[in-house]
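=== Discrete structure encoding ===
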Amino acid sequence: MSEQDVHHTASFKTLHVMTLNVHKGFNFFNRRYILPELRDAVNTLSTDMLFLQEVLGEHKEHAMRYHDWSGVTQYEYLADSMWPDFAYGRNAVYPEGDHGNALLSRFPIRQYENRDVSIHGTEERGLLHCILDVPGEADVHAICVHLGLRQTHRREQLALLCDLLDSIPPNEPVIVAGDFNDWRLQASKVLAECNLHEAFASHYGQSAKSFPARWPFLRLDRIYVRNASARNPKALYRKPWSHLSDHVPLIAEICL
């Protein structure tokens, strides 16, 4: 085994994760298509897993309108050569195409399931549950979350998330990240009953301000862990990140 292999094997004890609502590849107010710039930015980070929300699988009108529109899905375009494995959970379908959640991973995704948590057929939402094969570790569970805008819907969706968590073996590491739309700050109280702990709240006493990206004051995006600990959580407030979506990206080191 080479020195590089030894270093890489040791790094499996710590996973670098990022969560971002990519806003379908457009900046704030949908004024500019910025997915190529977003890909350049995420490629500068040594991230093992990307939890993405509002990522397009297809959009026929945009493909004809923008000259630099990718010929592949947005999650494949972002994965490029950096993240060899990915999973997509299609949540919303419309005549032009579809969008949903995606997970990009340096580690093999052994299996995945997209759970529909839409309430009464409005605001199509999902929980993308992936089981990762991380060498030297038990199964690592990654759940990419995008919850609804209405408090009553989020309450039901959090209950469905807890049902999913109850189905996971209690000793296996779990990372739950995404856009919770939880501006009333109720989710952490519910998820604490499922033994989930939020990275920013554990370190700074409260979740990160993440929306809107240029003037963040709402704490919508989260990184939760179970059977793991989070270290060095950061919200990427500065350029270019503040101009690449309407949400602020969050990153953290997850120690297994």
